[in-house]
Write the structure tokens for this entry.
Amino acid sequence: MTTNLTLYDLLKTYGIEPAEVRLARHGNKEISVLDTFLEDIEKFTEYTAWQKQGKYGNAKYIAVFCPARGTTSLFLGIWKIDGYIENKELKPNHLALLRKHNLPEIWYKRSVRYNLELTSIMHNLSQRLVIEWGKSTVSWVQSKNKDVVQIKPVNSIGDFTSYDSILLSYSDLQKLITDTDSNASWVNALSLVNGVYLIKYKKDGRLYVGSAYGKGGILGRWASYAKTGHAGNKLLKDLDHHQFEFSILEISPSTMSDDVISRENR
């Protein structure tokens, strides 16, 4: 008889009593959860800290997740809770923190601020552990055990599904290029096709259209971006490449450069 591995099983393995942990699954309403976690951990922690009094109960730790595919969630990390500052005791410097990170100032009047510190507990499973969270109507803060769906290989960005659903952050692109063994389905899919791709500069919404053709296909072209950030394009050199987002506009059946370039121009 086999039993499913659960989140509580893992917590115990790392010396954490599950009863001391609250699970929190942030949505993408005020922030882009995964991007903020990767690019600005200070802002992410501040975002997590402001809640209604009692939201985290008497927990000593909070395990934070972000949305994944369907009803699953991706583990990001575990923060230690060292009490909270009641609303009436908040100081102007706490309001300044909200303003610094462009978070809703109304929280200063309506919320308490939990004292949170990111721990190294289960750090090796960050962005690798996937759990079944449940339907979207389920509360975003829970103290309920969850089944483990998957523990991804190190540097895995998940399985390739389709060309039209590709939306890669720069950090994911680097993982893909750096660790091809952990991302074999992506390597196979992107190295076999040429086509027209799009780079979005998330900071201001600007778009750059490019094309890939010849040996290595789209993967070969994107590898240049992973290495330098700009792949020799003058328009991109002065931009923060960590703000780039990669997608594919069209797959070309032709390997001829003239054909692919004409599609890019169109």
